[in-house]
Each structure stands twice: as structure tokens, then as C-alpha cells.
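As described in the Methods, two query proteins were run sequentially through the folding procedure within a single session, without resetting any intermediate state between them. The first query and its resulting C-alpha cells are shown here.
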Amino acid sequence: MHVNIDARGGQHCETTALAVLLRHQGLDLSEPMLFGLGSGLSFVYWDSKSLGFPFLGGRVKPFELTRNLAARLGLELLVQETTSARKAWQNVVGPLDAGHPVGLQLDSFHLEYFGSQVHFGGHVVAMYGYDDRNAFLVDTEQQGGAVSTSLTSLAQARAARGPMTAKHRSFTVTVPENRPPAHEQLVPAITACAEAFLDPPIANLGHRGIEKTGKVVRTWLQRTDNPQQDLPQAALLMEKAGTGGALFRNLYRDFLAECTELVDSEHLRCGHRLYAEAATLWTEVATLITKAGESGDEHWLVQASTLLGDLARVEREAMRALCRIGE
């Protein structure tokens, strides 16, 4: 059983899955546009005793982007969750048999095609078919685009419990005929994202989180028994783990570039210039963290700390400009 889809993989899992579902409905938006309309950009510094090493996140929490995007574009988003594996399977087979691809949130650890076996409960894929053994999915470009995994592994991935997991979450989207044009939603999407970033509820988020990271990054060699593994791994997650590079800043830079062609605003052009600068700086930070881990030399972290201080300032300035584009 296969639904006929356009199976292009993107850079980031949630926007890749959304693109598959929306293209099937006749709405073809670029991946940066989906990310930006979903007000996807954020920052979180996450550390706790249960974590082996601090985690830097560059986007809003899993599935928030999908909910934001659906609200902005007036999409009908049907989300189903259940603790029953049998019911969960019916929730997927129903739409597929009716000719519609389905989005799934699951733990990537159990997917057989996945490049690295790490637990990530916020992973999202689009499912477009199945037979008596395998499920046919669309994942990011780097995970192979159109891929398959056994039905057993899919069931394990969907049933997993832990940080960021959802209970067998599946979802479909319907694009209504009289929805508002996407370009009318650009300004509200950008300003909502900027306001959240500038006024975070806790110091680990938004521009305050970047500033905090700048202070604590200097201690990262002492934070682990295995810096040669943990620091390069942290840097790799910033650049390669479905972020589109530069901790999602490349995606947001490209979204703002698309917007400059649709909205005439000096504040928008300023925000775009600053996010282009931020994207470059984030990639430099990742390089410095890798060098620190490989060499055990703290001076690379001191440099990273300085750049993170600059980043907090650059992104704060960018978001202040972007807040004003509706004026």
C-alpha cells in the first residue's frame, strides 16, 4: 500500500515531514519558509544531572512548529495520540488507505536506516506506505530521504518513552480552499518569534540562553570525563543533527531572505543581514568546541565564549529589528 507522493528529503525532520504532507495537498512552500512561518527559531541551553553533557537547541520544542504553522496558514491539523499500539496503527492505516500520507513523532533510536543510534524522542517523519513487513517513510536528506524500516522497529520507535516523546503521535493536515495566502502571515510569524526570543521566561532560553552558554562553555573540559568524545559530539549536533547547519540559523537566514522579496522593510533587511552574520558565527563556535575537545586546550573555549557573547548581542539586535517590521 503506497500513497503517491513527492518524496524530497529536507534538512530538518519536522519541516521535511510537513513539506511532504502539504505538497500532497497542493501547497508547495520552501523548507525555510515552513520553518519561519512556524516561528521555529529559538535557543535553549539544557543541562541536568541526568544528561551526560549539556545540550544546545536552536528551535522551539518538538511539534510546536507544526501547531504554529497550522494556526498561521489556517490548516486543519488532526493530531491523534494513544497508549495502545493497536489503536496507534489504526490511526496511521486509516488515512494511508484513504490516500493520505501521515506525520509521525517517534524516537529515532529504533529506526533501522538511521545514521546514528541516539535517543531523540522529538523526531518527526512522514509515512506514505506499508506492506506486511516494512513501513515506507520520508526522512531528512542526510538520513536518506525516502527510506524504509521494519514494522516492528516502527512500533518500538512510536511506543518509546522518555524526554520529548509523545504517545504514538500521528497527524494529518488538510489545506482548506479559502485559507489566507502565506505571504500575509509573514509579519505576524516573524514578530511572534522575535518577541518570544527577546523575552524568555527563564535564563536558559532565547538571547539570555546564548549569553549563559557563553559563560559556562569555558568549563566544558571539566564538565566531562571524555572531552575528546563529548565536545566534538556537541558541535556535530549543532551543525549536522537536522539543524540545516549553524543551529538552525542557516534556515532562518534563508527564510528572511525569501521574505525580503515579499515584504519591503528596512527592519527586515537589517534582521536578515544580522542572521547571516549569526549563522557564520555559530559555525565558528562549533569548530572551536570541536578543537577544544580534540586538543584538550581551554583557549579554544575562551574564544568560543567570546563569540557566544557576540552572538547574544547580534541575535538580540536582529530580533529587535524584526519586532518592528509591522510598524
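Immediately afterward, the second query was submitted; its sequence and C-alpha cells are:
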Amino acid sequence: MPNPLNFRPMPETTPGAAASTPAPQLTVVPRERLAAARVLVVGDVMLDRYWFGDVNRISPEAPVPVVLVQRQEDRLGGAANVARNAVALGAQAGLLCVVGHDEPGERIVQLLNESGVKPYLERDPALLTTIKLRVLSRQQQLLRVDFENSPAHEVLLAGLARFDELLPSHDVILMSDYAKGGLTHVTQMISKANAAGKPVLVDPKGDDWERYRGATLITPNRAELREVVGQWKSEEDLLARVTKLRTDLEFKALLLTRSEEGMTLFSDDGVLHASAVAREVYDVSGAGDTVIATLAAMLGAGLTLVEAVGLANRAAGIVVGKLGTATVDYDELFH
């Protein structure tokens, strides 16, 4: 069976440990190679809405600050932000998702059209499009308010049929799960992608990873992995738990994102640790989106997984220096 991740042997590490190794030399990818990469993002989309204002007094009704809102900004969130990140790097990205027939749904359509992402939207008139509303003052988040419900079964089946149509024309499949119901049929989608020889990257949610069985690469953070394998006591213990998980669920590789500790790649070729490269951490929201989008774009451009991880780690270090859900463009990554 051909290896969909085009693995190259990894640097040796201390046996049984995710010891830090020299990071691979960053590969500069020509723009034309990235422009040929075709990524299909499937998952839960949301509208990230920001209200910016000043706080000059405390409410007489309750001990809470009064925010005088002066500016509003909308950004693509969830799977839509993942697709936007892939496009910002220069790749082609299609987005298969469900949105409602409401104001935030129309706003998502508008932002997608402006972003360069190719939308493949199923519309559910009964769905309240997910909104994450953040209230900020002087660049500090004071409050977040969420609005959401789950899409209808019929709309999700229509999305599965659309997936079958889109699969042949994309190089890499990326599943962005935010537990909003958009990936109800993720198991069937992974099986179909595997049968077509397409690598499947998954950004997971929750503790039921059986539904991701057979994924090529899964990219949890520490809290998400801990929820599934339990608390590890050492790097050797972590390796044992991840190895069992990968064997049981047939994951070819697992990339653990570890915030200020960087990221660690586990595969049959060994363990590779990449130290964090952030110059300044300003906001970590959306950093996972940037990581998996960079991985997908680079794999679609023909890089090895080790090369893609090095670039994803660099992209994460850039995006955490920005406010809110943000992207990294080609020039930022390679210059």
C-alpha cells in the first residue's frame, strides 16, 4: 500500500522518549507548487464576531464592567478558518459544511467569497449558524457568548453525497471537528478517502476517537489527547500510550501540539520533537487551525510529513502573535 504521507526517515531520538532533536531544515516551497495543492476541508463552521470598546465604569446594576462598543469585526471561524489559512498560504481550498439561513450564515457566505475559499455549502433553514461573540476592551477579552445548535440529518446526508463528488478532485482531505454536528458521517468519509488513496488529516474533538479510525494523521493538543489516553507520567509513558492508540485505531501518525513546548510527531518511523518558535504569544485561539491547514497545504504540495511539520511549527509561532482567529501568508512563512 503506498504511503500517503511520503515519509522520510526521521532523526534518531532517545529510545522511548520524545527527546528534542535538531529541527529539519525548513523547505522553501515555490508558490506554483502550493498553488497546485488542492485541500478539501470538511467540518463545523462558525462566525467569530468581535465587539471592541472602552470600559470606563462599573454597572450600577451589577459588579460588571460597562463596555461602550465602538467597532465590530467578523471573521471566519472553525473549519472556515482552517480553509482560509490554507488559501492564505497559496493553496487551493474547498470547504464542505452546513450553515443556516440566517444573518450569520449569510455573513459566512460573504466572507468565504472574499477569502478565496471555494464554498460547498449545505443550507439548513432550521439551523442557527454558530456564533462565537467576543467582547474586548484594550485588546483584552472580557466575555465570550456562544450561539449554536446542530444541523438536521437530511442536510448531513446531502453533505455526504457531495463529499463523494468532491473527493476525486482534491489531494488532501482535512476534517475539522468542533463537535457541532457537521462531521456526523466522518467515519464513512475517512473510509471513502482511504479507498481513494487520499491522506486524511483530523483535528479531533471529544473522547470518541473510534469515529476517526483509519485517519492518516490526527492532531490533538495536550488536553484533547489526555481526554482519550489519560494522564501520562513521563515521555516514555506518553510514547507507550500513543503507540497503543495508533495501533488500536489505525492512525498512521499523531502530531501532539504542546503549546509553549512545541509539537511532537509520533509515527512508525519514530518520534520527532520540534521546539516552539513563537517570538511573542499574544493569542492562541485558532493556532490549531493554522497548524493543520499548513500541514495539509504542504502535503498537497508534495512535501514529506517531517518537512510539513517543520513549516507548521513555524506557522504556529507566527500566528500566536496575532489577535483572534488569524492566518499566516506565504511571505510571512518563508521570509
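The chain has one domain: 31-46+75-131+150-334. We note this only descriptively and draw no conclusion about the first query from it.
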